[in-house]
Amino acid sequence: MRNEENQKEIIERIRAAEMLTRDAAIITPSAMTATLLANQIQQALKTIEKFDAAIEEAISQPPDAHLFTNPGTGPIGPTCRNA
After folding, report:
1. pLDDT tens digits, 34-83
2. Does residue 8 sit in helix, strand or coil?
3. Domain coordinates of the chain in residue numbers?
4. pTM score of the predicted model
5. Which of 29, 20, 83 is nearest to 55 (CA)?
6. Where are the beta strands (DSSP E) in 1-83?
7. What helix, strand, coil percent values describe the chain, rounded to 5?
8. Rounded to an integer, what distance in angstroms lies between the CA atom of residue 55 and that of residue 48?
9. How far apart are CA 69 and CA 81, in angstroms?
10. What do you get for the CA distance between the two ends of the chain, in Å?
């Protein structure tokens, strides 16, 4: 869903969808859970960026740092997202 057009289409389809229930006892906690999970994902991405920066710094410091880089393609180091 990284494609902006796909995201917009999905949002439009969600807004146009018919609600299966109008019971606030179901809707409220579900919405709160969705918000919680979205916040956790955002925080996880920030933390991954910090890990990537720390790994990049650690790779560049040892005297044999040149072993961890490839002149043709650049550093071999992070990213945790690709793990």
Report:
1. 999 999 999 999 999 999 999 888 877 778 777 766 665 555 555 544 54
2. helix
3. 17-82
4. 0.58
5. 83
6. 69-70, 74-75
7. 70, 5, 25
8. 10
9. 19
10. 19
Give the whole-angstrom CA distance, residue 44 versus residue 42.
5
The whole-angstrom separation of Cα 50 and Cα 48 is 5
Q: Phi and psi (nearest 5°) for 62?
A: -65, 155
Question: Quick one: pLDDT band at residue 1, thresholds 50, 70, 90?
Answer: very low
Burial of 20 (C-beta count, 10 Å sphere; 0-12/13-18/19+): exposed
- Distance CA(28)–CA(44), nearest Å, equals 24
Give me the sign of the Cα torsion angle 3, 6, 12, 17. negative
- Please check whether residue 77 is in contact with residue 83, taking contact to mean a CB–CB distance below 8 angstroms: no
Q: How many degrees, rounded to 5, is the angle at CA 1 between CA 36 and CA 22? A: 50
